[in-house]
Amino acid sequence: MNYTDIPLHESLQKALAREGYTQPTPIQEQAIPIVLSGSDLIGVAQTGTGKTAAFSLPILHRLQSTYHAPISKKPRALILAPTRELAAQIFASLQTYGRHTKLRFTAIYGGVGQNPQVNAMQKGIDVLVATPGRLLDLINQRHIFLDEVEVLVLDEADRMLDMGFAKDMKKIVDMIPKKRQTLLFSATMSQTVDRFAKPILHNPQRVEVAPQATTADKVDQRILFVDTDKKNELLLHLLQEEHLDKVLVFVKTKHRANKLAALLSKSKIKAKAIHGDKSQNQRIQALKSFSTGGCRVLVGTDVAARGLDIDDISHVINYDLPLDTENYVHRIGRTARAGAEGVAYSFATPEDKALLNQIQQVIGQEIANMHHEYHSEKARNAPPKKISRGGGGKKRSGNRNRSRPRYSRRQR
How far apart are CA 412 and CA 120, in angstroms? Predict the structure, then answer.
């Protein structure tokens, strides 16, 4: 199937042709006709599969085909995203696809001044992309009203729930007319996501283009067993190899991200850190530098695990294994995008054995061991220890919010 076989508005076909897009991805091929039909949809897909276009194109088709001048403060479509980076990238995609339409778009999120966002809403926009925290702030200030929303998109729904946005999302959904089209996209379909989705979607059709919690086919995964005090030396050793030319390194904490980026810079390896305590401008500059080759290594917390759409990431390095094992899938999905190949290295210390076992259980495969000069037999043969928190694949009981890290408005 080609895009020309899909009955999209001519203005969208013109934009797709200009970008050189001819064939839809599997999620696009299956989801776009369903959304065009007006049905609610649950889309389950790995990161990097093209789901932004899967909901953006049919929404733009609908709004352009029934165009009327936008109403001040009242969008016709709302797209919720968990992070500023993802909101900004969805907004950029809307601008690309909708460049030949009459439609207006804007994105609102925290970490930047609200005045430009308020001014955009005052003038009237058709499609609003927003993070939950800033959206509720502006709603409470009466700068935004949702009573004209025709289409609601919940993108990365599992991530928003993991970040503690369940109550905010429920408040927002309750402000939108019940007569609407609702589209929910998620990389995983856990019981938590399923419970949240049931009351807000009406007879949804479901599209799943890859088994849940599977890793990208073209990612070459390797485990590197190492003692904790040798992790820095191992990282520097790996980065001496020239073929690691654009590397995303994941760590557990913001402090470690800063410290590791400083260590790499001191070792004459150009590196930047990205995490929730960075200002929006700092995060934009770090991403721009990484994307354009200004820096070779981007060190981030899981705030960077989703929503980053940067081409040609050659390697992902899990300096720290994720406490939520499902995040492993999202982390390594930053490489091997759009049909390319990529490599994911994961450091495993003696304390990580239980996490490693859970990750392999979740992805349904054993990750190959890679030998290196800092190899630790102690780490390789360590008995699994109880995980203090998180644990990813295990079912949580009771109130999930008790163990979930809290996010401030600024981080959202």
Answer: 20
